[in-house]
Design goal:
With about 170 residues, this protein is α+β, with helices and mostly antiparallel strands. The chain contains 4 helices and 6 strands, in the order αααββαββββ. It has a 4-stranded antiparallel sheet, with helices on one face. A two-stranded antiparallel sheet has the order 3-4. A hairpin with a 2-residue loop joins β3 and β4. About 15% of the residues are buried.
C-alpha cells in the first residue's frame, strides 16, 4: 500500500512539474513598442509593404519632425479644406487621430483611427466624418522619403483633426 501511494504521489508530482514547466516555457509575443501597427489583412491594403521590416519602423519622435509632406502643411490644409464636407451636428466635438506608416518609397499605409472627446475620453464620431477624414488622408500621395545616412526609412506619422459641431476646425501637428 505504501509503495502504491508513493508511486501515485511521485506520478502526481512529475505530472504537475511538467505542466508547470510548459506554462513557464510558453512565450508571450508582444509588440516592439506600444502603438506599433501590425499588418492586418482585414483592413490594410495587402500590397502595401514596409521596406526595412516591422522592427525598424521609426516612431515620429525619432525622425525629429511631424508629418513631412511635399508642399508643407499648407498643402495638407488645402487638401482637407477642398475635400471635407462638414456635417453640422452639435454633438460631434473632439479629436480624431489618424496614425499610419510612411514607407521608404513615400507611400502611406496601415492607417489606424483613434477618436476622443476634448477630455480625451473615447468617443465614436459619426461614421461619415471619420470615413471622409480617413479617405482624404489615404489619398495623400506626396509624403517625404526620409533618410539616415542615405538609407530610406519607414516611419510612423499622424494627423489629428479637431472637430467642433461637426466642422473641421484645425489639423495638428
Amino acid at each position: 500500500m505504501k509503495k502504491s501511494f508513493l508511486a501515485i504521489t511521485l506520478l502526481f508530482l512529475f505530472f504537475f512539474s511538467c505542466q508547470t514547466e510548459k506554462k513557464i516555457n510558453k512565450k508571450k509575443e508582444y509588440l516592439r513598442w506600444v502603438g506599433d501597427i501590425e499588418q492586418n489583412k482585414q483592413i490594410d491594403e495587402l500590397e502595401y509593404k514596409v521596406c526595412n521590416g516591422d522592427d525598424k519602423i521609426l516612431q515620429y519622435f525619432n525622425v525629429g519632425k511631424g508629418p513631412t509632406y511635399f508642399g508643407e502643411k499648407s498643402r495638407i490644409l488645402n487638401t482637407f479644406k477642398t475635400n471635407y464636407k462638414s456635417i453640422a451636428d452639435k454633438k460631434e466635438n473632439g479629436l480624431i487621430r489618424i496614425r499610419f506608416i510612411v514607407n521608404c518609397k513615400g507611400k502611406a499605409g496601415r492607417f489606424r483611427v483613434l477618436q476622443s472627446d476634448y477630455d480625451y475620453q473615447e468617443k465614436q464620431f459619426d461614421k461619415e466624418i471619420v470615413s471622409q477624414l480617413l479617405n482624404i488622408t489615404k489619398g495623400i500621395e506626396n509624403w517625404e522619403v526620409l533618410k539616415i545616412n542615405q538609407v530610406p526609412l519607414d516611419y510612423y506619422t499622424y494627423l489629428i483633426f479637431k472637430i467642433t459641431d461637426g466642422q473641421l476646425t484645425e489639423i495638428l501637428p
